[in-house]
Design a protein that fits this description.
Layout: E1 2-4, E2 7-17, E3 26-33, H1 35-41, E4 51-58, E5 61-68, E6 76-79, H2 107-112, H3 115-125
Parallel strand pairs: 1-4
Antiparallel strand pairs: 1-2, 2-3, 4-5, 5-6
Length: 127
């Protein structure tokens, strides 16, 4: 579930890397779910990442800002979707670090990480 303002959005998202060694470039497929479909799937075992998402425009770029919840609380990431021909962007002035190529900030890693590793990551991100 993603909260966008006051609205909950339920979706399954698959991200497949174009180059397995590089987490920066992925092909994305989203399947949007009704509340009923989400409720039916929510009883299956899963590694869950919960976050709220906002949009921020800065210097002519629209960023998706994810504020993580639950055991990931304290982690805030900004993301930009670019097409395959767009150049990578420079780190925006509001960001602490560019983590685009860091495996530990990917959704899969965050979902499966041990709590101690998540705490270490958040501590590293807030310096």
């Amino acid at each position: 579930m993603i909260e966008e303002g006051d609205e909950a959005l339920y979706k399954l998202c698959q991200k497949v890397r174009v180059d397995e060694r590089d987490p920066r470039v992925v092909k994305i497929t989203n399947i949007y779910l009704s509340t009923s479909e989400f409720d039916q799937l929510s009883v299956t075992p899963a590694a869950i990442v919960t976050k709220s998402r906002w949009t921020l425009s800065a210097a002519g770029v629209n960023y998706a800002i994810d504020e993580f919840k639950g055991r990931h609380v304290g982690l805030v990431l900004a993301e930009v979707e670019l097409d395959e021909h767009s150049p990578m962007l420079a780190k925006p002035s509001f960001a602490v670090a560019d983590v685009s190529g860091d495996e530990e900030y990917t959704g899969g890693w965050l979902a499966e990480a041990e709590d101690t590793d998540v705490r270490r990551l958040i501590a590293r991100s807030t310096r």
